[in-house]
Fold this protein.
Amino acid sequence: MFLRAFGLILIALLFSGAAVAQTPTTLTVIAHDSFNYSEEVMAAFTEETGIAVEVLRLGDAGSLVNQAILSRENPLGDVLYGVDNTFLSRALEEDLFTPYQSPALADVPEAFQLDPEFRVTPVDYGDVCLNYDAAYFAANDLPLPESLADLTDPAYRGLLAVQNPATSSPGLAFLMATIAVFGEDGDTTYLDYWAELVANDVYISQDWTDTYYGQFSGSAGSEGDRPLIVSYASSPPAEIFFADPQPETAPTGAIVTDDTCFRQIEFAGILAGTQNQAAAEQFMDFLLSVEFQEDMPLQMFVFPVNTNAALPDVFTDYAQIPENPIILDPEVIDAHRESWIQAWTEAVLR
Amino acid sequence: MLSVQAITKHYGKPVLRRVSLEVSEGEIVCILGPSGCGKSTLLRIIAGLERADDGEILIEGVSMEGVPVHERGFGFMFQDFALFPHMNVSDNVRYGLRMRHLPKVQQEHLVEDALRLVGMRGFERRDVTSLSGGEKQRVALARSLAPTPRLLMLDEPLGSLDASLRWEVLKELKRILKESGVTTLYVTHDQSEAFSIGDRIAVMNAGRFEAIDAPLALYRSPQTVFTAQFLGLHNVLTSSDYTNIPDDLPALDADYILIHPDGIQLDPKGDITGRIRENNVWEGHYGSIIVTLTPEISLRVNMGRPTLLGVDDTVRLTIDPAYVVPLSP
Amino acid sequence: MDRSGTPLNMVRANNHRFAGRRAAGILLAALPILFLAVFFFYPLLSILQISLIPDGTLDLSGFAELITSDYYRRVFFFTVQQAVLSTVITLAMALPAAFVFARFEFPGKSLLLSLATLPFVLPTVVVAAAFGALIGEHGVINSVIVSLFGLSDVPIQLEGTVAIILIAHAFYNYSVALRIIGSYWATLSPRMDEAARVLGAHGWRLWWTIRLPALRPAILAAAALVFIFTFTSFGVVLILGGIRFATLEVEIFNQARNLFNLNMAAALSLVQIGFMFIVMLIYTRLSRAATADIQAARAVARKPRTKGENALVVITVGVMMVFQFAPLLALIWRSFTVGDQGFTTRYYSALSTNPRGSVLFAPPLEAIGNSVSIALITTVLAVVLGMLTAYLLARRDSWAARALDAVFMLPLATSAVTLGFGFIIALDEPPLNLRASPLMIPLAHTLVALPFVVRSILPGLRSISPNIRGAAAVMGASPFTVWRTIDLPLISRGVIVGAVFAFTISMGEFGASLFIARPDTPTIPVVIFRLLGQPGAGNYGQALAMSVILMGVCAISFITIERLRKLGMGEF
């Protein structure tokens, strides 16, 4: 009796799962777990266009791209949001997207438009920069490091925490920054630089969360004792934004001097094989619209690519944008990612 | 009432070979045999706990083929009692009554009756795990009797009791079975149990019945060599040895002959001379001796009272021809 | 006696029904196999096929690298070594406690037992924070020692050591061992102990000659689970062990997620699965010859009488307090004191506000609702399938049954990323278009929980004598009634333990969900991870507050499940 009832329920559940069919006006967006926006802005989009947006989340940026590639024959959605320049070339090589040139790209600087074929459209960017504990540097009367090379100075011994590039996206960004600055050949390669960092007692932690909350001394919430870490240029305004009450002076800051930050640009693209091309195009335009672009900074702590979008106060007051961040060609990144990480792992961890 | 017809069972090798048995209403039949002879398997097949490869079980003429164990309405008492460890005494006894959906009040009465029958009133709330072996045995018996089964099967019910308890319990059990009037199959490897409780005894060996008869008839005339030996009747002679006994014994056309130990007397005028090899005294007041006649022939003689003769003394014997029985191999 | 009850009319069955019942039995037995085939083997084989046979030809370059590389050999040996050590330490800690819980009655016992499962649900990041607050460089214990003895150096420095990996593994798995061994122990007759004492066994001889052999099935079951769990450890090794340690699981994640080197990931996955399969085969062989005296299925626990017994209870409770509950208390304390404002409940109240109007916002009640619903579906699925599996495995003993037993453990030995990628490519077409179904997460959780449920039920099930079932059947109980009135009460402890594990695993699980496409159903762990992914004291404080809520919800659930069991036992 009980078992029969259970069987019926199970079958019903299975079929209800299978029956999540898509109505024509629903657009499915696959995205990484951090994709966030305000309900209000999305509601306005739906009202205006009649397109309801359903978001499927597939883990972090890396697993999002991998799963999109694996499901290429039978895509999970119509639009993908969240591939960044470190994974871009892998996604482009696999022909995941159909090209679409949004008219809104007119307001986006060319420097962000990394794909000349418009298969992907830049939506936002962020810079991986060193963050520091302002109180520590003030109390110890220590000048802030101004370049990556400064970090090997004994004055900063035991102060720095970074992430493992094999498991963390800012960790990989920082590794690529060192590669761009020190190069792979010559007298001092990036690996030599890393050897010096290790000699200077760098702490390598697993992911951003552990670095920021476990190792950093600057954040009001953190448990650590390292005043210098790899984080984002947007972390200091976030630190202020999420403090209650808001402090008078910023407890942390980002170092944005030339050739210390690595720029990550996030893209969206229409997945090849979509049945909702027109709706997908409207959604792409929406991502670049001033409404959405101005909504992003406080939702995801990234910067808008649309030059017409105004930044919120907490960003204009506390965020610094590096003038000359390091940008690597996505194809170079994808071609070397594995060998760089392996070389790094060999040199630093063993 | 019960008819077992040519039951055959293999577990790799044959365990039961075309076994047949008829049991009438109210009868107690003991299945007696050494361990591993197939008697428990037969019981489990009758109960429906196992399926026969071939043959049929009939109850009052109706085949049990396809009738699942729980619809046969039998009672079964396992050697390890198989009491339900998560229930107390009265819930154990009540179990079969609940399965018949009897009214609560009637259940209470029948549990009470069954526990009274086995002398376990007052133990109702006791945890079965806290009972002694004898108490468990009584509860198991009450549990199998309470639903008034058409057929009660007891598988070595005294097997796990120590010897001192056995006789007491055995007498009790006989009284209870007679009082309830239930048709019973009683499996044991112990001949004294079988003889004291069975209306008939079916001796089983290697998957076959060797002999089925009333206890006394079986004792007097065990029919086969195996039965005679299993019953402790050791004076089994081959026909050639038998003819060598110098006495006026009847000529028998059989391969084996039993000279029943009860039919031999010490008699100073007897024609047979022999020498005492052993003199055994049982419980101080009866005994048996073993007398060697020729190097090949020794006979056991049961004695009403112990003899004072010693080992190696020479004695004379007479044999009562009525106690000379032919046996099949 | 009344003979009117003789059911002559019952003798009217036929072969038809017999065959029908057989078919139903086979169908029930096939259900767990079908489940495993569809939701485990089909996705696994699909991803292995794509990875190892990318263009129609077999590519074994990953294996070639595995065999020749020094690095992978070291990873493999480290994985085995830490798993063995973790298992031994966990069992050594849990055994005396299991004895105390099985044999003695003391105030707060069932509460303590319920709460002991809490560490199991906490996300690694949160546990790391709790450990940090307790034994980190600036943690409570170090601060106390430093100030007491005026030391200049911190005495306990465990960060980034193997020791802290082992401690954390023991912390996580203590309750697994305690529950499985304790529930089995409670069904063993204390008479055996008493008999052994009469014969002169005492002290360690009593343990060595009587208790440990009697407990063998449960100890082996617990050891197998702890071994698998620590063998495939991911978060603990990554976050607490720091960067120098890598297990096979970490390498698989790295190859599949970061490098998208599916060939290498598949090779590593197969090594991991293959090794675990061999270990499980050995385990099932060892646990086969286990019979037990399960006569005393209830009420064998009593109040401690002697001084020694009292001390034993006190020490056990004390160890649990320090080892299990101190990190949790540290966590609760931190959730009220993060930031510079002293003691505050602001992080709890902030959980219910959505100042940015974010779509990702989930108020605590919604997150709790999602978590509990998923956990309940998981529990029902895992318990029903687990019970059927346990019967399938308990029934016959052959090499096939033992292999099947090991097979049912395999989902635990399979990396979440491998399986998640498998789901994406395998379950993409009707009738199995489940990739984006809300059922996918409970199904994935069920795969992980199933081995726990099976292991929890199997030892008890195997020790039910067939005669007990036979006795019930002869007295008129149909197979289902036998199961309901005999089996179920006798295995209820194991079932409850399994249910608690299934519920717990689902409540705290996050890793597997990471690789499953899912619509927005924010569970408690998801909310915690989202909060931890953003900078600022507010986020961190809210994450800790949410972790405390997770603990609270689980604690209430465990206590409820325990209550339900007691009610259920009373009925029959």
Notes: Chain C is about 70% helix and 0% strand. Residues 15-52 of chain C form the longest helix (38 residues). Residues 1-15, 291-298 of chain C have pLDDT under 50 and may be disordered.
